[in-house]
Each structure stands twice: as structure tokens, then as C-alpha cells.
Amino acid sequence: MNKQVRKTVIAGNWKMNKTPSEATALINEMKPLVKDADCDVVLCVPFVDIAAAIEATKGSNIKIGAENVHFKASGAYTGEISADMLKECGVEYVVIGHSERRQYFGETDQTVNLRTLAALNGGLKAIVCVGETLEQRELGYTETLLKYQTKMALTNVTADQLKNVIIAYEPVWAIGTGVTATADQADEGNGFVRAAIAEAYGKDVAETVTVQYGGSMNAKNADELLSKYNVDGGLIGGASLKAEDFSIIVKAASK
Ligand code: PGA
Questions:
Q1: CA dist list (Å): 12 to 2, 30, 42, 95, 112
Q2: How much is the pLDDT for 12?
Q3: How many angstroms separate the alpha carbon of residue 167 from the centre of ligand 1?
Q4: Which of the residues in the chain have pLDDT under 70?
Q5: 2 in a structural domain
């Protein structure tokens, strides 16, 4: 973390978990536990939970995000949701290009870029995910891939729009597996992302961008991961479904 130059952001990614009533209950449990956070706290929830989550977080320091957004403003795209729709519901953030979407739903670097542009043009903050598979890591492609994914996602994003972008480095092999990257691996991966941003926008701009780590971050390892210079927060899956665990991560990010 380096709070002097960039924001620390802890974001939960609930994935396909929690009904609206369960969302309300979990948020009510979390609110008092994270109220003194010295970092931004975000919960990215399923579309159908958004209304309940916005209602439950009213007057609190928790912001609400969605887990995806379509790249067109409206039209014949059955099952999709636009940035305007999210914005009107009170959503502030949106996760884009999560590895599960890349793996199971045909998301590509091109569609990640289009969704990022749609989110930014629609006034949302984008949490853009990048990350290598175990095979790519073992072949020695981690740096090349992270830089490529980062630059592709940011194609045609202006330096001004970049202020509303967070990049989440999520090694695919660490997501939901219980295998966490070591703090040094997380710092290195986040450093590759920051270097790619520096190549595209300059070093000074790159220093101001929040780069999260995600992949089995939990109450036990958050402290060490967040102590690293390039780790400006976390995108938290499993541990964001438990109020106590999530609040411990928020506290680690509040130091
Ligand atoms: P995990 O998920 O914390 O359960 O590994 C992280 C993510 O997929 O964003």
C-alpha cells in the first residue's frame, strides 16, 4: 500500500452467492464491523441483490458494485445489463473481466476493453481483472501476459478516465483454491500491472492507480499481502461472504 499517492480499496466479490434477503442480513452484520475503515469498502453483488444491498448500506461507508456490465447502452442483448441501468440503481463500481467470465462465458480481452469503456462512459468505477493461469506462469509468460491484458483492457481509456479504474491482479491458480500467491508474488504481479500502466500513461500516472490483489486473500494472510508496496487492496471472494473475516481484511487495509 502507499496511501500517500493512491487509494486502498477492499472489494468483496460475492460471485453467484446470496439471495436479496441473505444479502441484507450479511450487510447488516458487516456494517458495524467495518464502520471505522481507513480504506474504501466495496461489495460487488449479484444483479438481483443490488436493490437490497443499496438499501441496507444507506448511511454506511460501504459502496455497492455489480459483477459485470454490457458494452452497449441498450438493445437486443437478452440477459444483459447496461451501465445506465446500474448507475440508476445506485451502483458505483463494477467488476470486469473476472477470470470466471473469461473461462466460462467467452470473455476476451476485446470484450473486457469494451465493457471497461462502457462502464467509464456510464460514470461507473471499473475493477478490471487480469491474471495468468498456472500453465502460463510455468511457461514464464506471467509478465508478458499481465502487461498485455492490462494494456488491452485500457485501450482508448483516457488518462482522466483512468482515475476511475482499479486493476485487480488475480492469478487464476489462486482463485477459490485456497492457494494464495506469496506476498512477493503478489507484489511482483501487481508491479507488472503498474509497469504496463507506466508504459502507456507514464510513471507518475501509474503511481496513482490502485492495483488490488485477489486470489484466496483471507483474514490470516491479508496483513502480509497488504504490507507490500504494490498491493493497494484486495478483491475478495470466499472471505467476503463472512462478515468477521471480511472485517479483519478491512482492518488490515486500514493500517
Ligand atoms: P477468492 O476469489 O478470494 O475466493 O479466491 C477471489 C476472486 O475471484 O475475486
A1: 21, 12, 6, 10, 20
A2: 98
A3: 14
A4: none
A5: no
